[in-house]
Write a structure and sequence with these properties.
Layout lengths: L1 H22 L8 E10 L3 E2 L2 E2 L6 E10 L3 E9 L2 H4 L6 E13 L2 E11 L11 E10 L2 E8 L13 E7 L1 E4 L2 E11 L8 E13 L2 E10 L16 E9 L1
Antiparallel strand pairs: 1-4, 1-15, 2-3, 4-5, 5-6, 6-7, 7-8, 8-9, 9-10, 10-12, 11-12, 12-13, 13-14, 14-15
Length: 244
Amino acid sequence: MKLKETSLLLAALALSGTALAQSTPATPEPDYTLSFNAGAVSDYRYRGISQSRLRPALQAGADFAHKSGFYVGTWGSTIRWIKDAGGDASIELDVYGGYKTTLGAFGIDVGALRYLYPGSSLPVSPNTTELYAAGTWGPATLKYSHAVTNLFGFANSKDSYYLDLSASFDLGSGYAVVPHVGYQRVRNNAGFSYTDYSLSLVKDFGNGLTASAMLVGTDNDNYRAPNGRNLGRSGLVLGVKYTF
């Protein structure tokens, strides 16, 4: 009888534990998330072209995302190209917003992005607005960005566009490799249209800390610093970022 009573008691405890586990509600999805990031790179490359005259840059941003799929954010970086072109701005500030959703295994991201250069005094404003649409399937993402203003200070360049294809492959142990290729068309400025390419190795250390090493370059040598250095030349860019 003692053994039988013990067995019944254990069974009752097991059943009560199962019932408790089943009755405990799952953690609900938060209505929104708010995150911040800060980092540094050995050279700020945007679409393959150095924005910092092949020198280091400091960067930071903030992102707000709602569970419905809508998001807004801002991001900034130190730059040198405006001053090199005769202006005064030393900061790039981006403001963006959009909507993300999924259709089966296919991800969709559409939105608008405004690039601002506070204090710039260039003859043609470098401030730029683009609309974008991206589709993701598996590890690959194809994105199209269309300028509805002049593009980064180029005269008569409205309706320029950028088309790029990238992918992210998980190597395990926190490592990922990210290949990328893109084409920038600068309308009415054909000499400044180009193809860029990169291959990045990213390491996630956990707790929001990541580091990266990127081989990057372009097929255009018309983007030049005041000292004549090619801002689109092939090079290695190292970076570190902390997200919290």
